[in-house]
Amino acid sequence: MDCSVLPPELTATPQPLIGFCGLDTAKNPVHKSIWDAFNSNRKNDRLQLQFKLIPPNYEFPVSKPKRQSYEWYHPKGILKRNWILKHLHILPAVVITFHSIELSDPTWSEKQLQCTSAVQSLRNSLQGRLSRLAIVLIQSGMSGRATGDELVTTERISSLASACDVSPKMIFVLNHSDHLMGHILRLESAFLDVAQSYYTQIIKQVKLHRDQLSANHQVLKIRHQFKLGFMSEMLHDFTTALKYYTQAYVILEDIRVVDTNCTEIKTVAGFLSYKRSRLMFKMNVPRDAITQFNAHIELYKGKAGSRELLFEHYGWLCVQFSSFGDLFCDAIKGGLPALQTQHPGIYYFRAAEFTAKRNEAYINCSKCTTVQQVDKNTGNILYSDFFGVRGNKTGEMVNEQNILNLLYANEKDFNHSGAIISYLGQAMAQYKIYKCLRFRKKLAVNMAEEYLKSGDHAKALTLFSLMLSDYRTDKWYKIFTEVLMKTFLSAYYSASVPDYVSCSIEAMSPRILTTHTERIAILENLWRVFQGVIPTSIQQPPTVDVTQAWEHALDKFTEPVIVDLDKISDLFACDVSFAENQALFDENIAIELHIKSLAEVPLKIRGISVVLNSPKLSVKLKAKKILQFKPNSTEGEEVKEPELMVIPETSYRAVFSVDPRQFTENDKLTIGRVELQIGTAKRFAVLLKSTTLNQQQVFKDKLSSYEASRANNTSCYIVPSYQMAAQVNLSDEPMLMNEFYRVVVNLLNNFDSCLENVGLSVTVPIHLRNKVFLTTDITEPRKTLYSTIQIDIGDKALQSSTSLVYYVISLVRGNIELTQKMWYQITSLTSTEGEPLGFTGEKFVPFDTESPTHQKTQEREGGVNNNNIKIEYGDDCVRKTKEDTIMIPCQDEIQLTATYYTLNRKVLFKAYQDEDFILRIQMEVKATCGIDILDVTLLTGDNIKARDSVKYPKICGKALKCGTRLEDSRIISVQNKKDDLAIIMRYMNINHPSLVNPTKDEPFKSAIPAPKENVSQVVAPVIKSIYGKTTETRVQDKDVANETGCEALGVYVVRWRRTNSTAVNESKFSISGLEVIEPKLNIYCFILEKVYVRVPFELRIQVKNPGSKILSLQATLDNSDSFMFSGHRQLNVSIFSYATHDLIFILYPLKSGWQSIPQLFLKYLTGGSDGAKEEITQSELNLYVQRWMPKRVFVHPPHRVAE
């Protein structure tokens, strides 16, 4: 039928037709290569041309005589059926005749006569046609032409053109032996120009005829507008072609539609709409294409025509939507973007809808219309010379009843389901591309329904099964119920026992919106299947084929049907838990399962099983006892029947028991799944439930508090046994830093057999490496420190004990964590298979592949050990390792604070070379137990001189308690030598993080004040850690000790021991240095230790020149009321380089008590030369005097002479 399909010539892309004559492709290889070059590999980069090989006796269409007037002409139709086909494939725009004539051929005259005869023959065949004629002379290129032959060539071409009555421009020369493809491309361009001139002439001719039409010739106007649009497409003038097609469509709208012309009008309208949409997409105006198509459908969708042919109208609508969808797809492939709201899938879906309506209309029309059997060979009466017009081409009268009978016969043979499925498949592909997944599911259901209607039940079942999981996840139970029942029906007709059983079981769920009667019928059929009887059909009696298929399927129904309750709707509520979350290796493990049916009908269960998973084994357990709890009852009745009838609103409790010895110690047992068996002994189904266990709220409100707490035990840990006990004995007193702390470990064998390869290891954690050390021997020759120690004991007899001793020394305070491992080896007590005597349970789990719970448990629990015991199994032995953590508190033994002072008791931040200054060390005992300080030593380099202060003796003492404070003072001077103190310190264990910042500057006194809090610090600490970070201190003065990164002054070593202990320990402290400046002058002052009134004493001032130049100085003592002078008060001295000079002044004290010493003034003498540069400034001299000269001296009263 014309209205239900678009002719292929309409959907083809119009291309100019070029005809080739004179090419013998079968025998002449040169002609074959030329034809292949023109016709093969027509890619998009080449010109849009169509080539036709014309045989020698080809008959061109005969031109009809032209009418002088159309006044009395009444056409029989709008569009002729053969007109498009004629211009696309039959009548060429240009006819090219090929001749193998060399322009330099000596027999040119004879060749010219042959060519002229052939051209004349073609012209006679094309008489009355406007097709162009052209000649191509094939040149071999082998015969070379001499210079000057161009004139001869031109003359011969002109002579040939004159003889053939063609223009010289229509004669082309083709050299096939040199760059053939280049010549072909140039010829194609020339042929296209000639063809365009032909189509332009055709357009002029059609316009001339159109202008002769009057207002009464609407049909002819449409025909001529269509021809103009088609010829414009040939010229690739798409804008003009769209204009002509649109004008034709507008004229067609004015024609009144009745039953007699309805088919023709809709057919032509469909052709014009297709052409317009195609051109609009090509011109990149998709919105206009969609708009005009919607308007086209809106205009003609109500013009159905005759009621008897309503299905034909729906077929026409289907073709409109499907063809527009094809155009939309082609446009998208060309780069047009689409949206979710506007894409080709929408139109394919509408095409499927109208195809379904077409089928429905055909069925309804067949019931209301009397149709007779006809001979299908008379199908030509449906087609005439015009599109959409029915009748015999010979013009004979045709009975309308025969046409109706033939239309119904053709519609009956039409595969409606195949067309619907094809359109739905195309729509699904588009909806998937544009992420409309929900509508795609609907299309899949529609496709499955169509498969079911067409009788392809297997494909319907496959599609319905795929959609079940999606709609089940979405929880649209109304839609899901419909899909489930259709899946159930497909499973019945395809005799698929697994799908039929699973759908029947899921239909029992209260989520499925079916009646109680339907559930009973489904359940009865399910038991018929279990008993090997063919189920009855709910809708209609089964056919013979279905019955035979069921008989064959039931004979093969020997394997159990696996139904995963986690994937279907709720049917059973299951709560399962272990009695305890831990179990000993020699005690049975109890498991309780609470189960309740959510279905409205009773279900018979043959067996209840629970699968336990461990990292290496899965075991299936059968219920030992089943208790039934009726509604509103707390006491259960034991069920003793082999088959359990699960009644709605009734709860059941199943009790399981398992021997843990069939597993391995240190395993974590989990409940993999619950298995419920339904059916008979021969044919049954197994219901699996794993991931949805313990998720229903059915039982939680009715459980007691004890049962509720026990219901959370979803796993059970098999506690491993360890036959060796270890007791770590630590002293009552805490461990002190820098002390070899003694640890005693007692190992006891509690096992009734010998333990082999017993060992112990202690390891320092990584974060305490190089801060905490271990050793087993502290005697001086063998004392070696380790981070890990291992003690191998060997075999240990039963009920025996062993004591081990090792020592710990820490350089940091805090809780010291040590990792202690013990291990031993015993002979395995189990068999080779790892099963104890009396093994019960099934190691082989038949449905493990259906439930991934075991694999997930292994992945989740693999490598996790919740106990500190590790068990390794060998061939005939078991090795057990226990890991414990030992916590040893460690505290400071002593705390030091050191500060630098000048001899004038001022805080010192910078020192001069060869200057004496004081290092004041304050020590506080922090140990809670009594300690004895045996000795202290200050280790310095060769460039540092240190001597003890007479006033402050070295620190020592016995039984010093916590809080006791001691003080040490050293006089230090830095020489000009370098030392290797850093190298010495590198090999010493120096660490002590217990630092206290010194207090605010106070008068230098022997009593050490208590540390003050929140006091502004002006002195930086001079004790730093070798292994840790230097303590940072807030300071007020920038010139602080060690701020410039000075090297360490030395190491302060304190030797001590616990009171009443003989083990001697050493604590080493690094003393930070301070900046040392090389002075230009050194001053040393010497005074008697005791000075008396009216007793002269000598004030000796030693001046040292550390430089390489001579210093000339003038020294003067100022007047004083407390002293008289004897001798000179002013001296001029010259000090050579690196030499010293003593200035001696005799003073006579006049008063007792603290008296100010006369002030010394130094002046640099330049030697009398005016331009001499001063080696030392006066301010520097004043600074040195102020720094190193004493300010006061204590004068004692005079001695009393005994009477």
From TrEMBL:
Its function? Answer: Involved in endoplasmic reticulum to Golgi apparatus trafficking at a very early stage.
Q: Where in the cell is it found?
A: Golgi apparatus, cis-Golgi network
**In its UniProt entry, what is this protein called?**
Trafficking protein particle complex subunit 11
Occurrences of domain Trafficking protein particle complex subunit (ranges): 261-509
Q: Where do the Trafficking protein particle complex subunit 11 C-terminal domain residues begin and end?
A: 1118-1161
One Pfam family hit? Gryzun-like
**A GO cellular component entry from the record:** Golgi apparatus
Database matches in InterPro entries:
TPC11 (IPR021773), TRAPPC11_C (IPR025876)
Q: Which organism is it from?
A: Nyssomyia neivai
Q: State the similarity comment.
A: Belongs to the TRAPPC11 family.
| Signal sequence extent | none
Source domain of life: Eukaryota
Q: GO annotations under biological process?
A: vesicle-mediated transport
Q: Which UniProt keywords apply?
A: ER-Golgi transport, Golgi apparatus, Transport
